[in-house]
């Protein structure tokens, strides 16, 4: 048997193909999401096991997902510097650094890596620690909360990226399946 990353990738692609062929809509957005994180080489190597429309949705959705992540990640520092942003004033007042406030000087480290690993870590706090320059504890907490909000917004869009019904529709369908 094959072990390691290649084996996991092959199993993910097989699960996606099976879910697609059997119209298991409730599984598709999550499987597309997981498969979209695979390297393009692996997706192409395994593409013969995917129905044409399934592969098309995976590739288009992968691009849309990456664009959404990149757009939001790159806009976030500027958005957070905007005094009209909800919570900005409170965060500025609580900042422990003077005279230059954390939010006015925040910048990313390794931004391209950050965009690719945006959903690889469980919390926004993990991302702040790894990819943002040092900030005081109050601003770190504020930024972590904002990153979690950003990830929730993107997650809400995941089904649409891959041509699937919205989460609410899928949740209802899942409920129907489990109650029968």
What key phrases describe this protein's structure?
single chain; 180 residues; mainly alpha; elongated
Helical residue percent band: over 70%
Q: Which spans have pLDDT < 50 for at least 5 consecutive residues? A: none
Number of strands: 0
Biggest sheet record: none
Distance from N terminus to C terminus (CA atoms, Å) equals: 37 Å
What would you note in describing this structure?
There is one protein chain. With 180 residues, the protein is mainly alpha-helical. The chain has helices spanning 5-21, 28-36, 40-46, 52-81, 88-94, 102-105, 111-116, 124-131, 137-161, 167-179. The radius of gyration is 19 Å and the shape is elongated.
Q: What order do the helices and strands come in, and which of them pair?
A:
Elements: H1 5-21, H2 28-36, H3 40-46, H4 52-81, H5 88-94, H6 102-105, H7 111-116, H8 124-131, H9 137-161, H10 167-179
In short:
The protein is mostly helical and 180 residues long.
